[in-house]
# Entry
Amino acid sequence: MDTRPRLYLCTAFLCGALLTLGFKDLYPDLERRFRRRRVTADSIAGAGLASKDRIDLEDHTRKNRTDDTHEVDIGEGIEACVGNTPLFRIKSLSEGTGCEILVKAEFLNGAGGSPKDRVALNMIKTAEEQGLLTPHSGDTIYEGTVGSTGISLATICRARGYLAHICMPYDQAAEKSDLLLKLGAVVDRVPPAPIIDPMHFVNRARNLAADHTADPTRPGRGYFADQFENPANWQAHFEATGPEIYQQCGGVLDAFVAGAGTGGTIAGVAKFLKPKLPNLRVVLADPQGSGLFNRIKNGVMFDALEKEGTRRRSQIDTIVEGIGINRVTANFEAGRELIDDAIKVKDEEALAMARWLAEKDGMFVGSSTAVNCVAAARLARQTGPGQRILTILCDSGTRHLSKFWTHAGNIGGKTDSRLDDIIGI
# Structure
């Protein structure tokens, strides 16, 4: 029997199937081409043009845009780099104490590299809202500071159209004033003096601001930022630092430890966290020479033989910068009643902790961070294992090379430090 008809039939069937599949894929494209030509012809006719006339179409949409693009959150200026700093666990202190010792890396704020970025930005924004500052008008911001606030102000002033005039004691690390000059600030280095002296660095800044405003020959106004008394200080930490800590810790935290200079950080964070975490312990870390330890422990800055606020002696010498003070400030008082305890830290303990963190964790920290970490580790030993304790990593040791780290020295190849030798428990 001849099988060729069957073969022809099968071949025809296969060819038809392949043609159908090919036309299925080709048809939509043909249809689109037909409709495009028809629309183009209609448009040309409507415009009164002949179909043979050449029309060049240009794509003015954003180049390289794809169908899966989406809106992104791009910050505006260096101010966008302030806040939302990371939080991490210090391995050596956690392992050495049996507690979870966390630090919030405030040295990673992107303007001045310290928690003072938050304060400087909020003080400036608040003054702008109150009509006390106008960008690019010649207004100058004056402040008395031991360094970090000045650096943050100098950076953000330039970013927002102001000049900065910083007054600071001449015994502070030279690299701070050098950096201020590089940032375009005017720097007055004045002799250390008690707060009742008109030449105290804070009083000098206040007076210079008033003189600027009163001088009709000078452009703009003088604005005294007043970080020690300005409520925008603690409010910056209440509105941002505290909420960040709560979120990053998942609402689980047993203790918060921080030093205080103006007092804004410890007050603002405590005011936010305490209502949410009623069992949270807030502990002050205070360097030698500061009166805040006595303020928390005994309710007064000095002993009964000295009337508070009239002391003429300068603060006891300490190599720690940025925290510790011998007077009451509005920012510290805003949260004082929420502080449960205080731990005093000696200079040699802070130096040993700075060396320890470099040796064990590769962390090169400044003096105030070293004080915070001594207090956090000591609190961990006092309370026992299993606690979660958080403190602040304030700034890098690169701002403390000529003073604090000169005393601390090089760690070299040392690897045998003992935590017990540092915290004394």
User: Anything to note?
Assistant: Residues 56 and 297 are 82 Å apart (CA to CA).
